Amino acid sequence: MNIPVKKWYEAVQTRYSQQKYMSKEIKEFTRKSLEKKLGELNDVYPEVRIEVFNKSIKEILPALKGKYGNFTESPAFMAFIIKDKGEHRWTKMGYIGEAAILEATALGLGTCWVGARYIEDRSDLNLNLMSGEHLVAVSPLGYSSENYSLTRHFVSKLFPHRDRKDVKELCPDGYNSDWPGWVKNAIKMGSFAPSRLNRQPWRFYYGEGKLVVDSVGEPSAYKRLECGIALLHVEIGALDGGTTGEVEFGGLGLGTFISEE
Ligand SMILES: Cc1cc2nc3c(=O)[nH]c(=O)nc-3n(C[C@H](O)[C@H](O)[C@H](O)COP(=O)(O)O)c2cc1C
């Protein structure tokens, strides 16, 4: 996948889950830019795709089982859609879905992953799902009206680790401060990934140019998705840290960034 490293690196730092939105419509240029990127992302893996609906998040929420939080109306939402067959499809959904979230963030839009099973009978919306496809998550899209976001930003400046686990805790086989700079940068970026109730189910393992992302305990579908999110953050951190390479799904964990050095 073609990663705009600086842009998404910045987006990783500034992204926060937003539940409150202004009623203001999304600017046409912004909407078109996002649609263009989504077109590219939808061509990366056949198992996953993302669609934007110009409907409020509140229209889809009643049909979602397992969501939490108090959302306001939003001018649009993104739907994360996965096929019911295909290897590593949940991890790929997290990886591609987070690319869409970071692109939206870079365009000045607020987002929030809402991962929940969709119950079609509970919705009047026509999502144009094809047979064998399932909606597994959504995100509101719009301009955030959360007036405490400045405070959160301030807090994150004071506490650079934000509300995240320490990197040492995320590396069960040990964290070595002598590791190459790209490895440490990648782990830091991985730790900033979003997850349900901020549980941070990912763990990182490094050796011989490979940075492995795996889940704590049995990898449920949504843990796989979250580790896919973390894998994209890891890749952005690695590339920003000066190495080249690519990601691979499966292998020693749920996903691996392999450096070419
Ligand atoms: C798969 C997934 C599902 C989530 N579901 C919800 C949700 O239903 N409601 C909500 O308010 N936030 C949801 N979140 C957002 C998390 O609560 C949030 O990412 C986490 O608390 C960390 O905060 P941050 O995203 O601001 O860094 C979800 C995140 C992920 C990755």
From TrEMBL:
Keywords: Flavoprotein, FMN, Oxidoreductase. Residues 9-238 form the Putative nitroreductase TM1586 domain. The keyword Lipid biosynthesis does not apply. It comes from Halanaerobium saccharolyticum. This is Putative nitroreductase. GO terms for molecular function: oxidoreductase activity. InterPro entries: Nitroreductase-like, Nitroreductase/BluB, TM1586_NiRdase. PANTHER family: IODOTYROSINE DEIODINASE 1, NADPH NITROREDUCTASE. Transmembrane segments: none annotated. The keyword Oxidoreductase applies.
